[in-house]
Amino acid sequence: MGTPAESALKRARLEKNLTLEEAVALLNAITGGTSDTSQLSAWESGRRRTGLRNRRGLCDLYDKPGDLLFAHQDGQYGVARALHHAQGTLVTRWADLVEAMTSVVTGAREHLVVTGSRSREKEYLDAIETAVAQNPDLVHTRVLYGPPRHQELAEHLTRLMALRNPAERRNGVRTLSVGIVDRGATLERFFVASEKQAVVPLPSLHSADGFDCGIVLDGEAAAGLVHHGREACAAARLLGTIRDVRDLPVRRR
């Protein structure tokens, strides 16, 4: 019997006599994803809300219904409501936007998630490479929505692959994941998020393809975007080598 503080999701794992590491390995074998022990622990405690694909995988793994396994998550605010109720700070100048995005990168210690295929600001991209090079424990996730729009981004991704091998793990965790979502009807998402802060760039009023302002978010909202980005990457096609990146076309307007 679990203690009252244990969620049904955690009790289901313990009933199977599985460690976090064993459960994650079995889950990834079912889903084809890249979840790790920190995510599973957060799902079990209710600090994070499990995405649809991993919910299905966990139901299969534990042979239990989702309304039982995830009741502790669905009864709380969850990521979506946390973002809905978040209080953000608006930045309205291009220079301030780049500075805010770069600040998120330099402040990241555990997770750094970046989404979108249009980055090309040298200061910002250099900061990402420096963070990856200087902090081997930083888990960096990049989600592309279609091929890169600019040569600067394609070259940045190549340098990231040279800094870290996506196939390697540190303390059992993949610390570099680059995934690409085939656009189709999927809307491109733009944000940079760490465990403490995030910036969501907003389209420019003057250019359909540009960004010159954005929203700065803290706390739960930032952590929620980290979770969202990692779930998006788990569902994307992973790029595992420099050759994979170099084979991407640079998709200009």
Automatic annotation (TrEMBL):
Gene3D superfamilies: lambda repressor-like DNA-binding domains. Residues 9-69 form the HTH cro/C1-type domain. SUPFAM superfamilies: lambda repressor-like DNA-binding domains. One of its GO terms (molecular function) is DNA binding. This is HTH cro/C1-type domain-containing protein. The lineage of its organism: Bacteria, Bacillati, Actinomycetota, Actinomycetes, Kitasatosporales.
